[in-house]
């Protein structure tokens, strides 16, 4: 099962793997042609009703495959207004091949009946697919009514036009109009959908076929540029809307919490506060005027700070717990106390990790252990990648939190999902890169759900590390990474 947003991500990942969308469109068109052959004999009359997006493009390809049928392409709109290059190229290929195609610019001209007055044998509905928004507009609305009024079987491409593939509901709501004569969506008898089942299709009264269009499994299994889609800032957003993060760390170390904080800012957080022992507070502040530092009495974070940190945490989207804490009983007691009191979202790293498996918390945690820390938490690891992935997935389900297990290939898992990340390089084994990752994931978890934040965080920090390695070779240091995050987060 795959949602529309995830499908768009996987599609972009496939392109990055060398399987461009035009190639997928070719396979989609082929799959539509197979479905037509399954319901109608050669020679049958097959109008293909095409929108100007890629859903229509799929059917423009299908028309090329259906030589043995009496096909007629109806393009809803002028060819100059076809929205994508690949759909336009397929329109031009039809024209060049002299395959019958007409354009419908006035919906009153739209007519599906044959010259002899009969219904066609099969109608292909390729008006709108996953790119639909809102209720059907003209000429699609009138065309949908005509399709629904015909007795011919209807094969819908990807999803019946006007239906939300995620919910199965009409995109404009299901209210029928006063005269009852207009359609809210196409009623399809069959749906050829691509790559995987869509959540909303099962509830429709239609036979659904899932066509394999050649998207490599790696496009889903591994993070890629598509995973960054949809993370752009809302142009109307205000300060704080793009994430407020609290980093709790430091004591024996000052660099670790600072790296996390700078990474969180570069990963897009609006406001980053660092709560650290007063012994290091001015040093942390000295690293950057962009940070807001909150000093905790003493030189180590300990149980006496739980209330203060909990009140600071109450106002933020995510807490990052652990960078530069060092070990020790006091820190452990703090982490235990804080997690017992806290019910929000937190990234847990380094010395704080050991507490997670047996603490009673309502918090939603993203744990970022390396293999050794995973074992310290009670998890298992294996040298075989498939086995290791399975073990991480099981352990995530057991602890009930999201895990991002760092390694040459990072494994990200929660109870339901697992993803692998292969960006990054051996230069990143240098100290401090884990702190950068924790801060990055913290910032992302302020704007997206934990599993995705962890997967995208691993991907972009690895990418930033790859750019840093290109510049600095094995002289890469952790401070090279935060400034490279904005470039690494561009989805190209
Ligand atoms: N991997 C994949 O996902 C693949 C998908 N394919 C097919 O592509 C479509 C999605 O294509 P897209 O261009 O994004 O969108 P649509 O064709 O669905 O619609 C685009 C177009 O329609 C206009 N529009 C939007 N809402 C309405 C409305 N309510 N009324 C009228 N017009 C509307 C809007 O202007 C848009 O520009 C997917 O479903 C698959 O069929 C690929 O071919 C293969 C890979
Ligand atoms: K459709």
From TrEMBL:
Molecular-function GO term, any one: NAD(P)HX epimerase activity
Residues that hold (6S)-NADPHX according to the record: 54-58, 129-135, 158, 256, 324, 370, 435
Instruction: Name the residues that bind K(+).
Output: 55, 125, 161
Q: Which residues form the YjeF C-terminal domain?
A: 223-492
Any Pfam family? YjeF_N
Q: What is its EC number?
A: 4.2.1.136, 5.1.99.6
Domain YjeF N-terminal residue range list: 7-221
Needs which cofactor? K(+); Mg(2+)
Key word Transferase present in the record? yes
Where do the record's region annotations for Disordered lie? 160-182
Task: Spell out the Gene3D superfamilies in the cross-references.
Answer: 3.40.1190.20, YjeF N-terminal domain
Q: Which CDD domains match?
A: YXKO-related
Task: Please write the reaction equations for the catalytic activity of this protein.
Answer: (6R)-NADHX = (6S)-NADHX; (6S)-NADHX + ADP = AMP + phosphate + NADH + H(+); (6S)-NADPHX + ADP = AMP + phosphate + NADPH + H(+); (6R)-NADPHX = (6S)-NADPHX
Query: Is the Iron keyword given for this protein?
Result: no
- State how the cofactor is bound: Binds 1 potassium ion per subunit.
One Gene Ontology BP term is: metabolite repair
Summarize the protein's role: Bifunctional enzyme that catalyzes the epimerization of the S- and R-forms of NAD(P)HX and the dehydration of the S-form of NAD(P)HX at the expense of ADP, which is converted to AMP. This allows the repair of both epimers of NAD(P)HX, a damaged form of NAD(P)H that is a result of enzymatic or heat-dependent hydration.
Q: How does it assemble?
A: Homotetramer.
The entry's family comment says: Belongs to the NnrD/CARKD family.
What is the recorded name of this protein?
Bifunctional NAD(P)H-hydrate repair enzyme
